[in-house]
Amino acid sequence: MSKQVINRIIRTLCLLLVVICINSTFATSLTKADSLQLLGKVYNNKSVVRGLIVNVYQDNEKIKTVHVKNSNRFRLNVPYNSMLTIEITAPEFHAKRFIIDSNVPKTIKHTLKYEFDIDIFKEEEIVGVNTTVLDFPVGLVNFDEKKKIFRRDKKYTKRMKKVYLNLWNEAEMIKRTSELKE
């Protein structure tokens, strides 16, 4: 092969590499601009929970999983104009879920953020209690057109917090009763 042909091949490969890099950067920026950024903190009774697993479901199909080993904080982007279930758990903890309606007006062309804290139960904290209520979302979130932000449905969240508190109280009662029997 002549030196000219080799130089042509090298230039072509370099050009191809540059095009791929530019394309990748452009695609990434589009993805972030067309998404909602979730910023979450996870606790257990004010204690930091580590080893988080965050699953994102769209139409009951898992579309993303994020593992966070050494922090109780996470950040992830989810698509606009979707009904999503966000499931948060960690080893030896029960999962908690909330639903986000990420529909926004077509005029929104930038990334919006939704920040939240969530408290999850250790499995050992609620032994002996019917935990089927944990299958229901603890919160509902959607876009507030007037304020141009994502907000949780306060009425629904308040009801679910009451249900979760009852679950906690029932677990504490079972725990005390078993301690008295010993």
Structure description:
It is a single chain. The protein has 182 residues and is of the alpha+beta class. It is 32% helix and 36% strand. The chain has two helices and ten strands. It has helices spanning 3-33, 154-181; strands spanning 35-44, 47-48, 52-58, 61-68, 73-79, 83-89, 96-101, 112-119, 139-144, 149-152. A six-stranded mixed sheet has the order 4-3-6-7-9-10. Strands 1, 2, 5 and 8 form a four-stranded mixed sheet that branches. Strand 3 (52-58) and strand 4 form a beta hairpin. The longest helix is centred in the first third of the chain and has 31 residues, at 3-33. It is extended, with a radius of gyration of 23 Å. Mean pLDDT is 86; it is low at 21-31.
Helix-strand category = alpha+beta
Radius of gyration: 23 Å
Shape: extended
Helical fraction: 25-40%
Q: Spans of 5+ residues with little confidence (pLDDT < 50)?
A: 21-31
Q: Distance between termini?
A: 87 Å
Fold topology:
Layout: H1 3-33, E1 35-44, E2 47-48, E3 52-58, E4 61-68, E5 73-79, E6 83-89, E7 96-101, E8 112-119, E9 139-144, E10 149-152, H2 154-181
Parallel strand pairs: 1-8, 7-9
Antiparallel strand pairs: 1-2, 1-5, 3-4, 3-6, 6-7, 9-10
